[in-house]
Structures are given as C-alpha cells and as structure tokens.
Design brief:
Elements (H helix, E strand, L loop, with lengths): L15 E4 L6 E7 L2 E7 L7 E4 L6 E5 L16
Antiparallel strand pairs: 1-2, 1-5, 2-3, 3-4
Amino acid sequence: MGVTTIPSLGFARGAIVRAKAGGPNMLVVRGIDDRTVVVVCESDDGGSLRLRDPKTETLELVVPAATPATPPSDTQGER
C-alpha cells in the first residue's frame, strides 16, 4: 500500500518536508489554513530549533508520515 499525497490537504503530522527552493529538512507539526507549521534546526548550536509557518504550496514532501503496520500477534504455543 502506497502513500498518496493530496496537495490541497497539505502534509500529515510527522512528515519531513523541505522548501521547493532548497534548504534544510523540516518536521511537520500541523497544518493551519494555507500554511504548514514546521520545526527547523537552523544551526548546530544549542537553542537553534525554531517553529516556522511557511505557505504549504512552497514545500515538497521528503519522507511521508506513516505508521508502521503492527504484525499480527501469534503467541499460540510460545512462552
């Protein structure tokens, strides 16, 4: 099963995105109207994590947010 992106709905919480023009990867926190709230690390120095809210249309998906499937529990006869 693949992941389908519907641009009009934005990105799922937990997805990794980046600006279409380039730049660092950002973690999606939530979408608000036509903007996406993201966490970005601006440098290697402490205290450089920032919340930003770029327009959703300026971002591209790098890694989709996906919850791994939980394998069925097969514990019959195992201890």
